[in-house]
Every structure is written in C-alpha cells, then in structure tokens.
Amino acid sequence: MTRLIASVDVLITSPSRNFVTLKITTEDGIVGWGDATLNGRELAVAAYLRDHLAPALIGRDADRIEDTWQFLYRGAYWRRGPVTMAAIGAVDLALWDIKGKALGVPVYQLLGGAARDKVLTYTHATGWDLPELLDSIERRREQGFRAVRAQSGVPGLDKVYGVTKGAASYEPAGRGGGPAEEVWDTSAYLRHAPKVLHAVREHVGPELKLLHDVHHRLTPTEAGRLARSLEDVDLFWLEDVMPAENQKLLRAVRDQTTVPLAIGEVFNTIWDCEQLLSERLIDYIRTAVVHAGGISHVRKILALAEVYQVKGAPHGPSDVSPVNLSASLHVGLATTNFGIQEYMGYDPLVSEVFRSSFTFEDGYLHPGDEPGLGVEIDEEAAARFPYSPAFLPIARDLDGTMKDW
Ligand code: CS2
Ligand code: MG
To answer: Mandelate racemase/muconate lactonizing enzyme C-terminal domain: which residues (predicted)?
Structure first.
C-alpha cells in the first residue's frame, strides 16, 4: 500500500521561547510531527519548509523515508548548512513518526530495538559564584541527575553566556531588540575556571559526572592549557574548546591531554565531522538529531563514529523542541555507541503545547512506548503563544573585537 502525503504545515509557537514544528498528514489521516527549530533563525527554516519543501512533498509516498531524504538533499543542488539540514531533519522526523504510528510501534523498534534499557542524561547547573553553583548542582543531584554540566561567572565580567545570576536555569535567546552584547575576557576565564571546577569536584565527591562547556572561545594553545589544568578534575568531557570548524587544529589539544573532548552541536552533516571522527580527535559527537538532517542522517554519523570508538551525545538544549528530544532518545536507546543525552529541561508552558511520553527517572531518560516518536502537539494551545523575535547574544573581547562563541 502506498501512503501518500496529503498536507504539510508549519507551526510557529512560543510557549516561553520559539519553536518551529512541522506537521505532515497522510491521505489515510496519520499525522507525523517534526521539530525544525533553529535558535534565533526560526523563520528561515519555516520559510524553507513552507515555500520550498512543502510543495514538493505533497503526493509523495510517506513510507519512503530514505528516498525522501536523498530527494531533498541531493535534489536541492545547494547542500548542507543549518537551515537546509534542519528543514530536511524536520521532514525526516515527521516521516519516522508516521511510520511508527502506521505500524503501531515506537520508533526505536524500527531502528533495531533497544540496545540499552535507558538513556543516561546530563543537565545544566549554573551559578555566578561558587556557593551558587554548588547549590545549583545539589538541586540537580536531588532531582536524580547523575551527570551535570557546571558553568560559573568570571570575576570582572558582567555576564557570561550560559550563566544567570541567582537562577538554576537560563534561556539562551533574549526576546526583542537585537542580540545582546557580552564582554569576554579569556585570561580571566582561564585563571578562574580551573579553580571553580577543582572546588566543585572536591565538594561533590568522585561519583557525579561533571561536564564543562567552553563555547568555542579558545585557541588550541589556550584549550590545551585549560584541559591540562583540569586533568585531576576527572571531567566526563570538556565541550567545544575551539571553533568547531577548525578540525585539524584539534590535534594540538588532543596531544596534550586525556580529558575527553566533545564537539559538534553546530555541525549539520557527516562531512562536517568526518575528520574529527576518522582521526579520533573527539570522544563524543554532539550533533543534534534535527540539525543534522534527522534520524536518517544521524544514524550514519553514529555508524561512522562507532568505527572509531566515538560516542553519540546529542545537543539537547531548551531551544530544540520535545519532538527532537524524543527522536534523540529513540536513537539513543537503539544505538550501542551512544554516550549521554543532554537534557536541559523545559519551561512548564512548553508542556501545554507538546505532550510528550518520554520519562525521566534516576538520571536516565526513556522515550516511552507510544507508536511513533511519542510527542503530540496541541494546536489550539500552540496558537495561544505567537512567535516573538528572539536572538542569541554575541560576545566581544575587551577591545571590542567579535569573539567566537
Ligand atoms: C549549549 C547551548 O547546550 C549547550 O551545550 O551550547 O546553550 C547552545 O549554546 C544553544 O543551544 C544555542 O542555541
Ligand atoms: Mg554546548
């Protein structure tokens, strides 16, 4: 039987922050959902989907997921890039959701079944100073988390990305106006971060898995120094130590340290990380499922990673929707070389729109056993939260030069 695509719709909703969601409906009435959220560039993906992909999808066979992926990727001539790949990823997710629903099974069953019982997850802890950070970590531990990313303020700076004064969580994008500007001081950070992370390890004891995100800000020399100074902290990983596209330069960092390295939340295809994987310059590959072309393409990235003993650890901030998180969990459950899933959590308003069946218990996530991806969107609720422009902040050096971040 051929299951034809009858309609393709794009929903933009903003329950506390903006999400772009793709809805594909088949002629026999099955609805598949895809996430298409690209933080700060939401409308570009929405237009790509609405204006360029939707007309080409109507009337196609929804069951032909791989062929549709190739049709959208090869057919465009213009390849790769976050907007294109998020749009293709959204279609891919929606089609896997449809196939699961049509067959009455959760998507992880279609990927070969569970390769583990549950998916280890980490969340964020943030504090402007050490007491605030320790308090935030403690609260995360009480919630059951076994792995925590620790970020703190830097003396002399007003703001640090990923850290909100006095709060346990933060939202990366600010609403209204243009991007906020932050001032950054690498020397101050390099003096301060090792002290904080050593103090955190001393306080939490040996078992809690600790992670730290550098946000692409260092040179290979600075990154090597930082990693060496953190050897004794026993980090689970050090993330994004350098601009992610400088792949071969990571060798200089790698040669100096045994601290596990994670990179890749800004990557979109296997070609962006091929060198990092094949030369084993990283331990964890961070591509988000939707930003790297969906389940179909991320499985290929993970298959290449498996050859080099690199593990998957997808990006899972609050700025990709529960549809993406759920897709990531299906992949995580069914993939042997899967390391950990980031789970930043969501504002309570998000659950008014996205009804998810994934569960969290004792530091682990499970996607649930609903047919498909296990997330349904309440369209009436979505309509109550209209889009409102929001931007990620930018960072400048002390002399005003634009900074990588
Ligand atoms: C971060 C994110 O979760 C992470 O590791 O790097 O906060 C990231 O900066 C945002 O998702 C960007 O949209
Ligand atoms: Mg990150």
So the answer is: 130-260
Residue 140 exposed, middle or buried by CB count within 10 Å (0-12, 13-18, 19+): buried
Amino acid at 101: K
319 lines ligand 1 (CB under 6 A): yes
How far is Cα 66 from Cα 289, in angstroms, rounded to an integer?
Answer: 15
Q: What whole-number percentage of the chain has pLDDT above 70?
A: 99
Query: pLDDT at residue 169 above 90?
Result: no
For the chain, domains (ranges, CATH) are 5-105 (3.30.390.10), 110-370 (3.20.20.120)
Point out the ligand 1 atom lying closest to the alpha carbon of residue 240. Answer: 6
> Pairing mode, if any, of strands 147-152 and 375-377?
unpaired
What is the pLDDT confidence band of residue 167, given thresholds at 50, 70 and 90?
Answer: low
Handedness of CA 81, 83, 84, 89 (dihedral sign): positive
Residue of 41, 124, 213, 214 best suited for mutating to test ligand 1, as the one with most atoms within 8 Å of CB: 213
Q: Model-level pTM?
A: 0.97
